[in-house]
Amino acid sequence: MTEKKPYRIIISGGGTGGHIYPAIAIANALRSKHPDTEILFVGAEGRMEMQKVPEAGYAIEGLWISGLQRKLTIDNLAFPAKIIASTFKANQIISEFKPQAAVGVGGFASGPLVYVASLRRVPSLLQEQNSYAGLTNKMLSNQVDKICVAYPGMEKFFPGEKLVFTGNPVRKEIVELSQQNLNHNKKEAFEYFNLNPKKKTLLVIGGSLGARTLNESIINNIQSLTEANIQVVWQCGKYYYERMKAQLTTTPNNESIQLREFLNRMDLAYSVSDVVISRAGALSISELALVQKPVIFVPSPNVAEDHQRKNAEALVRAEAALMVTDNEAPQSLINRALILLADESQQQQLQKNIQQWARPDAADHIAQEVVKLIEEKP
């Protein structure tokens, strides 16, 4: 009996945390089930995956590739050359690594790699995180063997026979948090943020760099927040921190607002929060569903194909979340949050309905589908 060789799998994509963290979660799930699996990531040169993937303990190769801009730029003029160069390098990577399966998680970096893998008869799988499919995944959908999705109704973008409903993979620490009782560390959470356990808490999260609209919404309505009998944990982002800190310093009675550049302890932030304000990226939605928090989404307008708005609308239709548009937010967001904080019945309804988007085993499910492709190859 011959000894079974380790699996060799390429995972490609990136550009944003919304693509990178699910990709790493899939890799971790593969390694958890099959510890000797050899995994190689392929990303875009100069993008955040070139730092984040090695930090997670995986090797990565970079392609000279970027997305098409919506206006005429030097990058757009170079796009054909980038496609040719990255396709050539993808072919070289596949020849050297000899993968048994290729996984694309979306983003322009996955295009050349998955395309070449499919031409070379390497079993290939796509993971689509959003309710409105990305351009790269739509273009690759006829080439691949399987497509893992997180929303119902994705037949309008992809061949129905290839679809597997898995949900979105999220970071291991959030999955672990969702499996605990969030109340068990509330005491620690209130002490960590220096908050009053007897008051309702609003959590505002704008990502590591921050979200200008969310920050403006708070500044424009700072008096309403300080006069209400609530408290706020406000993650404003690295780019805005000094300006928001200066604004807050000049605000009377500001002790109820805890400003943070970044939240290192998301478990404590979720534990302490009664209502959350967030952008509507696929990763944020998956995390909030796991921890079952009432949320008001403010979709970013600065994303490809307006997919954040479409993500949020899918939850709003199911009465699983509320939404305020980016244009409306500076005037109406905080008032809407204060109304929700006072309405425990609506909070409970949102918590109950958002559960259907919770998929704690998503990464494991996708990993199983990848292994199945390898095992079933003739």
Rg is: 22 Å
List the secondary-structure elements in sequence, H or E: EHEHEHHEHEHEEHHEHHEHEHEHEHEHHH
Uncertain segments are: none
**Topology-level CATH name of the largest domain:** Rossmann fold
Write the layout of secondary structure elements.
Blueprint: E1 8-12, H1 17-33, E2 38-44, H2 49-55, E3 59-63, H3 74-77, H4 79-97, E4 101-104, H5 110-119, E5 124-128, H6 135-140, E6 146-149, E7 163-165, H7 172-178, H8 186-192, E8 200-205, H9 212-220, H10 222-227, E9 230-235, H11 241-249, E10 257-260, H12 266-272, E11 275-278, H13 282-291, E12 295-297, H14 307-317, E13 322-323, H15 329-341, H16 344-354, H17 362-376
Parallel strand pairs: 1-2, 1-4, 2-3, 4-5, 5-6, 6-7, 8-9, 8-11, 9-10, 11-12, 12-13
Helix pairs in contact: 1-17, 4-5, 8-12, 9-15
Quick summary:
This protein has 378 residues and is of the alpha/beta class. The chain has helices at residues 17-33, 49-55, 74-77, 79-97, 110-119, 135-140, 172-178, 186-192, 212-220, 222-227, 241-249, 266-272, 282-291, 307-317, 329-341, 344-354, 362-376; strands at 8-12, 38-44, 59-63, 101-104, 124-128, 146-149, 163-165, 200-205, 230-235, 257-260, 275-278, 295-297, 322-323.
